[in-house]
Each structure stands twice: as C-alpha cells, then as structure tokens.
Design a protein that fits this description.
Blueprint lengths: L2 H22 L7 H9 L5 H35 L11 H14 L4 H23 E2 L2 E2 L1 H25 L2 H12 L9 H16 L1 H7 L3 H6 L4 H23 L5 H11 L5 H25 L8 H23 L1
Helix pairs in contact: 1-3, 1-13, 3-8, 3-11, 3-12, 3-13, 4-5, 4-6, 4-7, 4-11, 5-6, 5-11, 8-11, 8-13, 12-13, 12-14, 13-14
C-alpha cells in the first residue's frame, strides 16, 4: 500500500472517530452504545434531540470549517509559492471580521451579522483582485502584498471597533475573533461549498503540480497559467469566506495542516488536497469538542485551542523531519 493511500485510510478513520467523539462528549452523558443506537435507530427522545439537534450539527460545522481552511491554505501556498501563506493572508478574514463587528455594534442579529461579514469579505476580495489583476495581467506578488496591506488596515479598524464598542459586547466580539462555533447554525451551506471546492481543486491538481515548478516552466509544458491562478484564487477565497462566516477567525489550521501532510511525504496535489481536508476537518472537530467540554459549562474559543494543540504537533513534525534528514 502506497503512503498516500495509507494516509487516506488513516485520516478517514480519524475523521470518523473525531465526529463520533464529538457526539459522545458533552456535559450530558451519552454512552457510545447510545450514540450508535441513535444513529442506527433514530427514535425520538432526549438522547436523540441532544445528538441530532445540538452535537451533530456543531460537529459537522467544525469538520466543514476545518476542511475549508485546510483546503484554502493548501491552495494559497500553491498559488503564492509561499510556505507562510494561509487563508487569512488575503485580508478576507479581516474584512469579514470588520463587517461582523460593525453589525454587532449596531445590534444586528445573526442573519444580518453574517450578511455584514460576507459583505466585508467580498469587499476585501474585490480590492485584492482588482489591484493584482490589471490589463489582463496577473501578478501574484502584487496579490500577496495587497492582501497583507489590506489585512493590516482592516485589523486596525477592527481594533478601533473593539475600543469604542460597549463593554457588554466586547467579550462576544473577542470570541468571534478567536474563533467560536457556538452559534454556527446549519452546516449545510458550508458542506456544499466544501464539496464543490474540493471537486474544483482536485480537478486542477495536475496543473498545481506543474505550477509548483515555476510559471515559466509550467507555460513551457503547455499549462494555461493565468486561468489556473484565477481559479485557485477564487476557490481559496470562497472557501475562506464560508469558513469565516461559519466560525469566525479560526487561526492556524490553514497554515499547519497542509504542511503536516507535506511533512508526511505527500507532494502531489491530487493527494495533498483531499488529505488536507480530512486532516483539517478531524483536527478542528476534536479541538471544538475540547473547547466545549474542558471547562463546561463555560466554552472556550476554539481558535485558541487550535494554536495550543497545533504548535507542539507542528514542532514535533518539523523535528522528526530534521532528524530523518
């Protein structure tokens, strides 16, 4: 069995195990046998309601969010050929955060807050794309620089909003900025975006392998570089927007997960992309389960736990790889 196939089996098991653990874990005790019984025979009752109305939607939302962030990170690292690229480097997260926080200050509900977050993210995408694509020419370096500058500007406005907001709203804003799945709602739209984005990304995997050789080499091999770059940018941006609207700004997943898969010996994007989605989804599902159970009934920001868990794991992988060399 090849390494990618073995990792696919391992990550698929980890994804299923993470979702199952999320269904079992919580302040209200539900045994593994009761969860299995509810899955196989969904009889209405208290256990059924806790599993299918509370835990399952949140677990599925966490998995979709983690998969979207990991996919966006892998795509942007390929597009920018920059190991430090992550889903938030284009300023999409900062734009969405600014829109959401302004809506919260205005007293808007969840629907209007999501609409404002989407508007902020769309504005960021339009500015980045407009300034990096001119006269039919695409400049990925201008794209990177524009995204970094725009993210800094939006972050300054976010800080200003936090300083001037009423004190009673600041805690909720901070949770959103650190990543919070408490109010994720239905994961259906995020799963739809995830499935479509994975299909589009995998369809262009061969082109991404060529693009990794450099633009000049890729063109010499017959690759239409500009259309591929635009498709990658749009797919990564849409995936990031869907994740941010679902859970706020959950950091570290999009940066760490693709690197972790590469450090396990996977280089081909045909395998790297789906493996990153599975690992990112499993990782965020487990992190969110820990966030809602470690200090129950109080919930912790899941973005804090992704960093606390992810940093030592990433350092261990880097140390292991260096030792192998």
């Amino acid at each position: 069995m090849s390494r990618p196939v073995a990792l696919l089996a391992l990550f698929s098991f980890a994804a299923a195990a993470g979702l199952f653990i999320a269904l079992v874990s919580g302040p209200f005790p539900i045994s593994a046998l009761l969860v299995l019984d509810s899955v196989l025979d969904p009889t209405p009752g208290l256990v059924h309601d806790v599993i299918w109305q509370l835990r399952a939607p949140r677990a599925l939302a966490a998995f979709a969010c983690g998969g979207l962030l990991a996919l966006a990170g892998a795509l942007l690292q390929a597009l920018l050929r920059n190991a430090l690229a992550d889903p938030y480097i284009l300023g999409v997260s900062s734009g969405a955060a600014l829109g959401a926080l302004l809506a919260l200050v205005a007293g808007a509900g969840a629907v209007l807050m999501n609409a404002a977050a989407f508007a902020g993210a769309a504005l960021a995408i339009a500015i980045v794309f407009g300034l990096s694509f001119r006269s039919g020419e695409w400049d990925v370096y201008r794209l990177l620089l524009t995204g970094v500058v725009l993210a800094a500007g939006f972050s300054a406005l976010v800080s200003l909003t936090l300083v001037t907001a009423p004190h009673v709203q600041v805690k909720g804003m901070l949770f959103w900025l650190m990543g919070d799945l408490s109010y994720a709602g239905s994961p259906l739209s995020a799963w739809t975006v995830l499935i479509v984005a994975v299909a589009v990304a995998v369809a262009g995997a061969a082109g991404l392998d060529l693009l990794a050789l450099g633009e000049v080499k890729a063109r010499s091999l017959g690759l239409a570089v500009k259309p591929l770059q635009i498709a990658v940018f749009v797919t990564a941006a849409v995936a990031t927007v869907a994740a941010v609207m679902l859970a706020g700004s959950v950091g570290f997943v999009g940066l760490m997960v693709p690197h972790a898969v590469r450090l396990m010996g996977v280089a081909s994007y045909r395998w790297l992309l789906p493996l990153s989605v599975l690992l990112g989804g499993a990782f965020l599902t487990l992190a969110d389960t820990a966030a809602r159970t470690l200090a129950a009934p109080q919930q912790l920001p899941v973005g804090v736990l992704t960093a606390i868990i992810g940093v030592p794991v990433m350092l261990a992988l880097l140390g292991r790889t260096r030792a192998a060399l």
